[in-house]
Amino acid sequence: MLKKLTSEIKHFKDQSHNFKVLTLTNLIYSIVLPVIDIFVAAYVMRSSNDPMKVVVYQLTIYTGIPLTFLINGWLLNRFPIKVLYSFGMVLSGISMMIMMSLKTLDVTGIGIAGIVMGMSFGFYWANRDFLALATTNDSNRNYYYGLETFFYTIIAIVIPVLIGWFIEFSAAAGDAKLAYKIVTGVVFAITIAASFMCFTGKFVNPVNKKFIYFKFDPYWNKLMFLAVLKGLVQGFLVTAPAMLIMLLLGKEGALGTAQSVGAVFAAILMYIIGRNTGPQHRIYVFGAGLVLFAIAALINGILFNETGVILFMLFLLLAKPLLDLAYFPIQFSVIDILTKKEKRSEFAYILNHEAGLYAGRLMGAGTFLLLGYYISNEVALRYAIIIVAILQLSSFWVAKDIIKKGKVMSKELAVTEPSTITAEAAALAIQP
């Protein structure tokens, strides 16, 4: 066992300097992600007892993200990428401070806090995606995302439990809001630490300054369809678990515990999958994630009680990282190919991809809002997830077609432009 652990540590040390810095930066920042994703929504739910306000908050976040992707593109021509990346992380703490400073949670205040949080995500993900693309190649991306998911899931064991029970005990003592403010202060300090780590990297900005295009290769349209389907689930999946648990279980402590149950198994599994799979296995990993998510949605819809929520969270702990572990390398392999074919900046594709995600998020959140407004919040929480899970299953065939087409295009590029085709794309072309 010790020999195996030593071997894995050596494998990590053998990676490039930027690979290690990016991984460690994301590791530090991942400590605050459960707070941002889960407990901010729980705070809105506790303070307003209105699921619709939670969805409004999420919609304003998703509106801020693509706008900031666009702004980030212009700023990359003027500032180092690690400055913008660090700013995004720190801004998430500032957004939480804005939320906690509101005396009453009206729609305007929630919207402002949501837009700022969306901007933080925009700066964070726009630069994180580019750095991950530039720092990894097709042969080690499964390892990168497996390693990253391993750390994220381990952290998801500890942080939700600690924060959840801290808030609940504080609430029992009569001051839950003070507990949220303390958590916000800790979050801000951690974002500063992550920023310091980021500045130790030797990251380079995108070379090609033009990043806005309206016409792309037909191959890119396939990925955009996949992005819309992914965004469909993201539309309310970030806040749906918090709303379900606050309604059916009622406590932040239960929220934290539910987030942590089974996470050890999920973390180890994701690392093993990431370490031992290659590009040829991604479609199977992706398919497994889709099936697990559909099962989770069905269980929640059929039971819709405490047991259903716990099982929903358990299946989600496996489904979400499996989907991400496969999706991001698929996305990056498409960008690798098209940057060579169309001679464009990688950031042009990252920006356009976010537009596809945003369209899907609007449809996902819109489904929830329509069901909640015209029928009931319970129907929205119970059946909207099933609707998007069934639609999401079609992603399997879309992803399969993308991978198949990518092999063909890689072979064509290897023949017509052997001097520009990347080693990873050439390797992809010869895979069975």
UniProtKB/TrEMBL annotation:
The lineage of its organism: Bacteria, Pseudomonadati, Bacteroidota, Sphingobacteriia, Sphingobacteriales. Keywords: Membrane, Transmembrane, Transmembrane helix. This is YQGE family putative transporter. The keyword Coiled coil does not apply. The keyword S-adenosyl-L-methionine does not apply. The chain crosses the membrane at residues 21-44, 56-76, 83-102, 108-126, 147-167, 179-204, 225-249, 255-274, 283-303, 309-334, 355-375, 381-399. SUPFAM superfamilies: MFS general substrate transporter (SSF103473). It comes from Pedobacter metabolipauper.
